[in-house]
Each structure stands twice: as structure tokens, then as C-alpha cells.
């Protein structure tokens, strides 16, 4: 690791100030991603501001404002606690399933909700400093574009970067229209809709998100919804546990009789951000919740996919996964 | 004194179990040394060429740095000393990506790692040879005589004439051993003698190879390796890091700790090579094999050759009048491949046993009946009788225990919810050998209490060597196990075979038994008495009032064993569930039935077998090291990318041992189980996937995308 200074923050205001002052400073939360990247020389912060003591762990009902009736997850709450909280399990089982589908028990015990949102891609060229990578070192080229790209994107990639974003949690949050609450150095708090939080690589793949340097994730807000009984997080991967998604689908439906009133579908493992399957959603609203309609929706979404050399399978797999996740959702989690 | 009950063959707990789970067992880096410095190796970032210049200005100034060693200032070493894989800093030549090109020694590990990243290297690059797809066509006959073409009869004619045949190519990818304990060494000099704390499957081999490499006499090098955190072949032959630790310690005149990082493991300590295996089988309509050809194409290092014996199972498993085993190999700019659990047999059996399944299906024969029909009564490769062979028994007893009769002979007939269920079987073998091993047994009596110490430079890979040797010595001396202490893993002890190729248990246990028998005999003679019932050594120590006695043997395999072909045999049964939409596969049940002669401890033996099964399932479903064909670097460098099975991937495991008494193989009738546990596992799984889905996957690992 490169030498760095270490400060243990005691309050959010001073933590944000310290970060904002130094463009090469980083917050340290659970450290499960940042420290790995520092050991590999990929992240090279000159200062670490340890925020793990900040009192931002609460999971509580939102009692006022636009999201009244929803819940709020503290930015420094542990992934494990979020997954197992009764409010989450009861009202947002999709989120609980998504978190538990990620990483391992030990890592989830350390990992925080804010840190999870900002985890970086697992692209192997990003992780190996001897390889070209525009995300790590802009202008060096994309090692994966014409290299080994079985795990990479089929939607929204650019010639500059074909990486996928790895979080499971964020895929569920995208389906649930969550908001990310951030605080900046001037003490202001704002809500970034999850759809605006992440970005496609374009010609600036070094930017994973639209969060400016110097802002702290204090909470994640989940709006109230009626999806709890008809949602499912499907994660397809190379082994049953402890592997990143080949493709994942967060599906949630609200129905009246057998008619779909609202549909939410987000995909993981297919793009530089959690991929909201808007085309599929539009196909479903007002239709009957049938296998045939699920298939039409999946076809509509996957028609735009642009696979790379080694990941053509993701198009068929994504299609099947949308159908399966929707079927599991209407059956309350059973096939 | 009452009789002590015999413990050999009973499932006693591991002698070293408590020490391990409480963290008291010292692994290589845990040994206390005074004031160690920390070394890290740095690597080439090109796969072929020559180092032009190394700029160390910034690194030399970095905090804590004590020394930097490269080919420019490294001492002259003997590159043919017996360490594998080159990379000894003897020249600027680069033969593979990740080759060690220098050592940074600093006060702490992180200081060393940081400084290593400040070093700037420029290269004269050459076009690397790393694309197996493109190079396979240039493969040549290996230099190794064992890999010469082995031909019996006329395979081509038999194939031409046959109606029932299979001619297919099976691919197994590069795999890495990735033991939990990465390769790590503490080197401590004392004058011109060096002690190396370094886990080694072959303690004396590590000693002689390192000594020769360092231009020392073997007695100047001591290897200390009481515990090994896994090796699977990668700690059999040793690699450059061992000698480089000694070089660094000498250079800075201080003990040095040198550990490889997980990411460095992929190009430092060997690998299992990518094998392209063509199998051709022909049979008569009633299922008698008429031809078997097994042709392997693979790769080795640019300047050194190692070829896994993929054709070995095909030599001995089935009776056929026409047989052909060949190897072709192409040098590539990748690290030297090496022995990897079940070398040649785990990979070779995937090809052979998949093809047997394919042919059984074409013949509309039950795959078990098809195998039994082709059971050879002698070793087809050399005509020798078997010392014992339990293939048929393994298949039959396994079928009964597994519920084979519930298998549907046609694929896609067994559906449970969203899953296709399939059953698969495969049979395998691994040769049994005993190797020369010495052992020293010391007895000490205090009052009525007799205690034994057993010493030999054996290795315990975590497999149970301590335990079985304690059992063997206790029974042979007439002592309870608490009174027996086993010291192994130190090259200053009597020389022993390695824990490799399934020779450990047979070599060590027979040597210890021989030493105890010899010691008892000597005590009888010493007593000058005649005994109607021979007393135990413990009883003699008491009756003759002897306080200290010791003896040593240099044990060798019995010459009579030469007349026989000795192998362990197994049959594996897998039940898989394949998800119809996603292609995800789960092994619901796995049963291994093994005939391996005397089982010294059913508990450690079971652990060995199911451990092999789990790796075999990994081979079947998840494990693959991927090389970028442009640069020759591995893109799967961590355990997040290189997938070994997790608990959730593995359903119920079961191991059955055939009650087998082998009279010929060696005195104790021990055949070895370390390797055979992984043989014919991947094929059983692949055959079950076919039975479930109708998809024949001939390229491992069977990931969801291949099954879609
Ligand atoms: C082997 C392995 C497997 C994994 N598998 C999965 C998986 O399958 N699915 C999955 O979703 N994840 C997986 N993960 C990733 C894991 O979920 C993340 O590492 C974890 O969520 C990161 O949280 P953390 O608190 O440890 O973040 P840290 O490592 O501490 O921080 C990560 C980044 O977020 C920034 N940061 C942290 N908190 C805040 C905050 N409150 N405000 C602003 N910035 C902040 C840090 O500065 C840093 O840049 C895996 C990780 C490993 C090591
Ligand atoms: S895909 Fe993105 S992260 Fe991966 S090498 Fe290309 S630029 Fe880097």
C-alpha cells in the first residue's frame, strides 16, 4: 500500500470537511472493497477518513415528506443488519434477498450500505495495474473491450469501458425507486434518485457515479410501495454463493386481479449501472400477469442488447431471467 | 498390565486437530524468529523478452527499504538445482508474465510492497506465445520417454470397422492449486547453514533442491515444515521463492520472511495445464470394446517440460485389443505446469469416462454394465496380475447404495419443479506405490510408563499423517496412543518419501511399522529369553527393566510387489439438479466408493476422499484459470474470480470403502487414497448433467452459460 494518513472521524460535519479539503482523500467504511483495492495499488488515497464510528446506522420509518410511509436505512448500517431488519423483511423482501445474494456472511457483516453503493467494478483489468484500463488510468485503453469479457456489459457500454457494476443491493434499490441521501461540505442534505446516482461510462469511465467528491452518503430512502407480496431477486452466477452475478433481475409487481398495475424490473451484471428495464416494464403495465406477456416483455428489453466477444450468452440468460424472476414474483417467491 | 486395544483401522480423531483449530499449529510464517525483515517479489509485466533497464531510484529511497535484489546483483545460483519454474534472477530473460524479476527487502511487508511498486522496468518485448488455440497445431512429441506413443494392436482399423464408436475432443482448462496457506518461507542463516521454515510435501526433496540451487551441501540446509496448509502438488517440487528467501536473508544478514500474495500464486508455483484430449472408442454391438485411443495435446514452459499423464487411466481401466496413448506438447510463455491433485488421472478420467458414457448411451447399455463388460483381468498395459482390483465391487456396491435403479436411461425424464435431475457414474484409478523411507523409534520408560517417539522427515498435508503414524506405532509397540509422539516435517529427521502421488501413507506407515517390529525383535534378542507368545515392546521394556532404547530402519517396498500391478480403484456416483431456465447446476448427492486396501483410519480417509470429491466437483463446475491471449497474464487472480465450490454448491457427500485386503502391495496392504478421491469425479458430474439435460458438455468447467 502507498503511505496514507488515517483519521477517525467523530462527527459527520468534520468528516465531510476533511474529505472535501483533499481531492485524494477517501472515506473508509467497512473497508471490504477499498482496502482490497489499495493493496492491489488500484486505489491510491493519500488520506483515509474512517467514518465507521459515525452514528448513521438506524433503520427507521420515514414519518414526513415525500417518502412518508417508507423507510430509511442509515448510510453506515451494515448490510447484514439491513437484510435482516423486520421492517425490511416485511415491506421490502426484494431488498433483503438482494443483499443476502451478495458476497459472504463475513463480508456482509463488515460492509456498509453506503460502501456497497460505491463499490467498484470487478473487471480484472481494472484490478491489475499492469494492464490498460480507462477507468483506473484514463487514456490507457480498455483491456476488456477486445480481451476476456465474459463477465462484462451488454447494455450501455462505450468503446472506452465495457465494465459492469457489481452491487446486488443497488439493483434492488433501482427497482424500488430508492433515493440516496447525501450531505455536502456546506452542511446541505439532498436526495439523489437512484436512477440519477449511477451513470453509463461514456468517455469518462473513471466516474462510476454522479456523486461529487466531498459528499457523504447518510441514508438510503425507500418509498412506500405495494410490491412486498410480489417481488423476487434472482441472481444467476457461476456458483451457488459468493460469486458476482452473470445476470441478476430484481422484479416487483403490483396487480389487481391478474392485471398488472405497476411493474419494476432492474437488472444487474449487464451494464455500468443497475439497468432499469423500462421497456419491459412498459410492456407489462395493464397486461395480464401471464408467462406469455413476461416473455414479450423480456424480448422487448433484450432486443437492444449488444454483446461482446465472450458474453453473448447473457442475452438469452437475461431474457430467461426476466421471465423467471417475474414468475417467481407473482408466485410469491415460488416457481 | 492389561492388553492395549488396537487402534489401527479405527476412526480416532486427528492428533493435530485441536492445535489447528485453536491456532496453535505453526504454519510457515508463524515460527518465531528474532528481528525478521520482510521480502516481496516483484514481477515481469510482459510475457516474453528481455529486461532492458530497472530504475530503482525511488524505491531505494522509500521508507524502510533495506535492499533490492535483481539479476544485476543476485548471487550465482544453480538453475538446474531442482527447483521448478526458473525465475531465479539469473538473467534478464523473460519467459512468462509474472516471472519474478526482483526482491525488495524492507522492515515491514507493506513497506516492501510499496517500494516494489515504485520500481520502473523497461523491456525489449517479444511477441509472446500464449494463445493455445493458435499454438496447439505446433505441438510436438514430449522429451519425457514415459510420454512416447504407446500402441497396442491397430486402433485405426478397429475404429473404421466399428458401428458403435465415439470420437470426441474433451477440454480441461488451466487450474491452480490455491492452497489456503500460500507459499511462504522464513529463511534464517547461522554461519553457512540456513534453516528454511517452509511447508513442503517432500521435505528431503525441498532440502536437496534448495541446497543444490544455492550451491550448498544438503546438510547445510534444513527444512522445517511441521504443518502444511494444503499443497495439492504445488508444494511437491519447490519453486524459486524458497531459494530467493535464503538469498535475501543472506544479503541483508537477517532472518527474512517471504510470502507470496494470492495474486502472485497464479504465476509462481505451477498450475495444471490446459489439456485437449481426443478419445476414440469403438465397441461391438454387445458392448465389448475393440479400440481405445487417448491423444492429449497440451503446453509446457518455454524452457522446461512437464506433461500431465492424461492417458494413464486409459492404459489400465478397460480391456481392449487395440489401444493408443499419445502426447503432444507445445512450449508457451506461461509458468511451468506441475503435478496437481490426481495428476493426469483426474483430467484424463474426465475424457475417458465421459466417452465411455457416450458410448454406453449409443449402445443403449447401462453405463455400469458396459464398464463391467470390459473389466480386464490383468493390467492391459503390462500383462501383470492386479495386486487387487475392486472396480466391479465399487460399481455394484455403489449402485446399490446410491439407488442407481432410479436413474432414467434417457435424458430429460426426471423433473423436479424447475430442475432436471440426472444421475451419472464414472470409474477411476490411481497407482499405488511405496517409496523408500527411514524411521527412528525411541522408547523411554519411567516406572511402568513407557513412551515412544517416532521420527521421520514425513509430511502431513493436513491429511492425517500424524494420526495414522501414531496409530501404527501404538499398535506395533503395544502402547496407548497418548504415549506415542510423532515428529515429522523436518529434514534433520531420518529421510522419508514425500506426501505426493498417494505414496505417503504406504511409505510412512510401513516404515514406522518396520521400525517398531525391528525394535521389538531386538528387545526379544536382548532379553535372551524364548517367548511362547511374543510380548510387545512396551512389555519388554518393563520386564527387562530397560529405560531407553531406540532403533532405526531404512524401509523399502517388498521386491515381491514388483510382480503385480498395484492401484487404488474407485467408482463415483453423482446426482445433479440443473435449473431449466438459468442452467445453474447443483450436485445434490455424491457418493465415492473406493477400494484402496487397508484403511488405517476411516475418519481421516473419509475426509481425504470427500475433500478430493469437492475439488473434483470444482473441476467439473467452477474452476478455471483464464489467460488473456494477447498478453499472457491471468485474468482470474483472486479467489473472487477463481471459483472453488462453496458449501451451498455441495449437497450430501458419502464415502464407502471396500473391505479389501491386498496381500501383495506392501506389508500393511495400504494402497493410498490422496489422489484417487479426485479421479473420475468431474466425469460423474458431467455424465449426470447429460442424463439430466441431454447436453453433453465436453469442455470444463460446466458453467451455466454452457448448459443454457
Ligand atoms: C470476495 C468478495 C465478494 C463480493 N461479492 C459481492 C456480491 O456478490 N454482491 C455485492 O453486491 N457485493 C459483493 N461484494 C462487495 C461488497 O458488498 C462491498 O465490498 C461492500 O458492500 C463495500 O462496503 P464497505 O462498507 O466495506 O465499503 P468500503 O470498502 O469501506 O468503501 C467503498 C467505497 O465507498 C466509499 N464510501 C463508503 N461509505 C461511504 C459513505 N457513507 N459515503 C460516501 N462514500 C462512502 C469509500 O470511500 C470507498 O470508496 C463482494 C466483496 C468481496 C470482497
Ligand atoms: S471495462 Fe472498464 S474497467 Fe474494465 S478494462 Fe475496460 S475501462 Fe477498465
From TrEMBL, chain A:
Keywords: FAD, Flavoprotein. Residues 1-227 form the FAD-binding PCMH-type domain. It comes from the Bacteria. The lineage of its organism: Bacteria, Pseudomonadati, Bacteroidota, Cytophagia, Cytophagales. Gene3D superfamilies: 3.30.465.10, CO dehydrogenase flavoprotein, C-terminal domain (3.30.390.50), Uridine Diphospho-n-acetylenolpyruvylglucosamine Reductase, domain 2 (3.30.43.10). GO terms for molecular function: FAD binding; oxidoreductase activity. The keyword Nuclease does not apply. InterPro entries: CO_DH_flav_C, CO_DH_flav_C_dom_sf, Diverse_Substr_Oxidored, FAD-bd_PCMH, FAD-bd_PCMH-like_sf, FAD-bd_PCMH_sub1, FAD-bd_PCMH_sub2, Mopterin_DH_FAD-bd. This is Xanthine dehydrogenase family protein subunit M.
From TrEMBL, chain B:
The keyword Mitochondrion does not apply. Keywords: Molybdenum, Oxidoreductase. InterPro entries: Ald_Oxase/Xan_DH_a/b, Ald_Oxase/Xan_DH_a/b_sf, Ald_Oxase/xanthine_DH-like, AldOxase/xan_DH_MoCoBD1, AldOxase/xan_DH_MoCoBD2, AldOxase/xan_DH_Mopterin-bd_sf. SUPFAM superfamilies: CO dehydrogenase molybdoprotein N-domain-like, Molybdenum cofactor-binding domain. Residues 22-127 form the Aldehyde oxidase/xanthine dehydrogenase a/b hammerhead domain. GO terms for molecular function: iron ion binding; oxidoreductase activity. Pfam families: Ald_Xan_dh_C (PF01315), MoCoBD_1 (PF02738), MoCoBD_2 (PF20256). This is Xanthine dehydrogenase family protein molybdopterin-binding subunit. It comes from Larkinella rosea.
